[in-house]
Amino acid sequence: MHPRQIAFLAAVSNSNQQIAPGVETALPVDNAPRAEAEVQSINPWKVAILLLAALTLYRFGVLAQIGLHPDEAYYWLWSRVPSAGYHDHAPMIAWWIWLSTQLLGDNSLGVRLFPILSVLIASGATIAISWELYRDRRVAVRAGVWLNAMPLVGFATLFATPDAPSMLFWTLTVWALVWLRRSGDRRIWLLVGLLAGLGCLSKYTNLFLGLGILVWMILDSEARKRLYGPYMFIGGAIALAVFSPTIVWNFEHHWVSFAKQFGRIDNGQPPSWHTLEFLAGQFGLANPAIVIFAAIAVTTVWKQRRAGDFSSTAFLLVLSAPLLIYMLLHSFHSRVQGNWPVPVYPTMAIMSAEAARHCAGSRHLSRMTKWAAPAGIGLIAATFYYFASPLGQQASFSSPADKLIGWNELSTDIAHYKLLRGAGWVGTIDYGVTGELAFNTDDPQHVQEIISRTRYSFETVDPKLVEQPGLLVIPSASGILERLRSCLPQMEPVGEVARRAGKRVLERYTIFKIKQAPQDIFSTGCVL
After folding, report:
1. Strand locations in 450-519, DSSP E?
2. What is the mean pLDDT of residues 388-397?
3. Is the pLDDT of residue 528 over 80?
4. In which compartments does the protein localize (predicted)?
5. Are 122 and 195 in contact (CB under 8 A)?
6. d(CA 348, CA 431)
7. Do the Cβ atoms of 277 and 335 come closer than 8 Å?
8. Are the beta carbons of 484 and 474 closer than 8 angstroms?
9. Cα(318)–Cα(173) distance, rounded to whole angstroms?
């Protein structure tokens, strides 16, 4: 980033800091009065608007140039048949993709339109929550900026996965709760119920926010006096009504989605190093500087727990605590994916921004406050720019971005084999490959997974398709071939293709021709 851009972000992050007596400044003495005047003349609201608008436009530009992640392509398959539920998750992300592709078409930006906008809206809500709680405009702006400086938010929530609507509706629900807490207008419970229900339609993780609300009402005696009443229960009924289509869908599909997600609570694995992995991962994914300030905020709440005053920071912490505690307990026996806690990241940004306001007397913490935003946003922006460029698309080193590269070229190669061999359909053994090949072809209906067919209960496959010869695409390193022969005895290898990043081979695939497949292969699939 240009030095002036870094200085601009540093000013945003540090604009409300008071220089404590005896603390060294980075500016020469003769420039200090003018620099102080310039900082004070900055309007934080304008800075926030300009920065968030610039980041959003930048994200539109770079993400339009980056191919879909296999998970995104899989959710795009869902969106072709909108439903009240799906095998793996709640349906909101599929609804978003359906609407955005109606507007912009089946392309990378069309799939990611609403996730990108959701980060912008969540940033605005983060600023609004912080302002309502602390009435300090610079702390509010810092919270919104720091949210965008968190690598997990700056990377993961911009892609079309359930994390994007999950974080958005969690944050909007907290905003409604803050409004309720400040105004005392119990009718706001109705809005809380609506937003919480939409959050549960986004990802089942959002159910933990409901538990957080109950804990808050139990612990905060003042809230019970002012806010408890019929509207609270009506709000809960609204949340249940909004979520009910997915409950009904699960009932009709043998509770498959609930079983898949809630089955992770205890998988019987022995204790391991997953807890350390979880904590270390969150330290990096949430931005180390921001995590340190969040820890200071939590420590402050703990020290003040007997004061009798349920502070604003305690309120935010209690809402987030059930999810965080569950994640920690889960890590004792199984791996916690890094993206799972992302709904509470806006809350973390707010708590950290408020804690930083009280740390101006520490030279080291003041420097950390100053550089949290430039370092986080700069790293995210530079990474996106690199992988959106031709150089990044042909990178000579391995990285998580490998999952985004080479799918269009691979699909073209497989389409050539399909035409050459007179095949009518392409079979796969993996949902991600299925989604990618379907997204990158003009005929997605003719790409079908042949193993886990319960994932595709939302679609109806043409029964005549199985009567045609097909191609089967299998990762060459897969050990599944011999087991597949019991289901598809009449298949023969016809070639090999590779997914590449420039000259580097990311993965090789063997192609088989299927002369005749079982009649039920697109309903029950191959049982291995």
Report:
1. 470-475, 491-501, 504-514
2. 88
3. no
4. Cell membrane
5. no
6. 34
7. yes
8. yes
9. 14
pLDDT for 406-434, tens place per residue?
Answer: 999 999 999 999 999 999 999 999 999 99
Block residue for tokens 């105004």: 183
Give pTM, 2 decimals: 0.89
User: What average pLDDT does this structure show over 54-72?
Assistant: 95
Quote helix, strand, coil % in the chain, to nearest 5.
Answer: 65, 5, 30
Q: Is the pLDDT of residue 28 over 60?
A: no
Residue at token pair 């340190």: 292
Q: Identify whether the C-beta of residue 433 lies closer than 8 Å to the C-beta of residue 414.
A: no
β-strand pairing of 470-475 with 504-514: antiparallel
Give the helix ranges, DSSP H, for 64-91. 70-79
Sign of CA dihedral 146, 151, 154, 158: negative
Q: What percent of the chain has pLDDT over 70?
A: 90
Whole-number Cα distances in Å, 309 to 112, 305, 312, 315, 357: 43, 8, 9, 11, 20
| Share of residues in the chain with pLDDT > 90 (%) | 66
Longest dimension (CA), the chain: 85
The C-alpha atoms of residue 526 and residue 528 are separated, in whole angstroms, by 6
Can you say whether residue 308 is alpha, beta or left, with left for phi > 0 and alpha for psi between -120 and 50 degrees? left
Cα–Cα distance for residue pair 47/509, rounded to 1 Å: 50
Beta strands (DSSP E) in 416-488 are: 425-428, 447-449, 470-475
Angle between helix 3-14 and 44-63 (nearest 10): 130
